[in-house]
What does this fold into?
Amino acid sequence: MEKRTDKNSYTILFAVIMVFVVGASLAFLATSLKGKIDENKRLEKQQNILYAMGVNDNDEKSVAFISTDNVAKEFSTYITKQVIIQGDNVTEDDEAYLIDLKVESAKSKEASYQRRLPLFIGEKEGAPYYIVPMRGKGLWDAIWGYISLDKNLVVQGVFFDHKGETPGLGANINQRFFMDDFTGEHILNQKENFAGIAVSKSNIDPKNERKTDNAVDAIAGATITGDGIAAMIRKDLRMYMPYLQTLKN
It folds into this structure.
């Protein structure tokens, strides 16, 4: 006599029930943890912004962010103003750091939509810093970061990260030996025109002594990721240039 549990219908019913139970459980967890997830994202963004302006716990070689326990306090101390640039309008907004660059990029494909550009203005040791968020495409997936500029549009620091670049190669964009090279680089050329910063395997400046050549050395074996960094800097900084150029006047 065939057992009921041997029937195909039982197997299908069991699978349906398990899918429902697992799906409901995951939905419940996602909903219940949403507040914590959003808070962690907020703290991470604040850590990244501060890192780009040189507020971190680095030692001589490693990358160390301000701790999550202290980052909110440090953020409010060093970031004096957040603004949103939308065409010719510049408005203050204390939650500009919550703007999703991916969403804004998608919306901007509609001719009627004017993209919102968040900008973070900080102060350290009496000097102003202007921190621009960026998002681009690496070899395998998204790359993003922040670049900090002084009023002369000289880079004061950067932070880069990625979703899925190759370990040991493109994934090294978030390491000190690469990010530190950007400090002191100019984004304008000698004619004061916007040039961005190339990531070049032919730069041949291993000690990064040339700061007005608009280029840093590439990571060996990570040409496409480096090109993605350079393209991201050019693309996103260009959108901010009408505002940034006013700093030099």
